[in-house]
UniProtKB/TrEMBL annotation:
PROSITE patterns: EF_HAND_1, EF_HAND_2. This is Parvalbumin. One of its GO terms (molecular function) is calcium ion binding. PANTHER family: ONCOMODULIN-2-RELATED, PARVALBUMIN ALPHA. Residues 39-74 form the EF-hand domain. Keywords: Calcium, Metal-binding, Repeat. It comes from the Eukaryota. Pfam families: EF-hand_7. Belongs to the parvalbumin family. Ca(2+) 1 binds at residues 52, 54, 56, 58, 63. It comes from Strigops habroptila.
Amino acid sequence: MSLTDILSPSDIAAALRDCQAPDSFTPKKFFQISGMSKKSSSQLKEIFRILDNDQSGFIEEDELKYFLQRFECGARVLTSSETKTFLAAADHDGDGKIGAEGINVLIYRIRLLRMCCNDV
């Protein structure tokens, strides 16, 4: 299975275009534009499995900096600042890595913000 089996190729392309410039990536906006914020827990787990390059069950900081490249080979690497911000947002237990539940928690928070604040 590939990411385009779950997410629209045009949504992925739009999300990648939105964060082409260094330090322009935010997980919240990327998840919204790519359509990840609308996916079910089981779909998010599958996306996580695809993104977990070494299949360890976690996405560590070294893997996370290549996050955009998992969507498209030619995409840029996340900056150190973007990587650390992303890790802090999704590492719900403070162990320095993201488990599948960390992505689900982050998506849940994004959905709550949209409901509470009409945030787009």
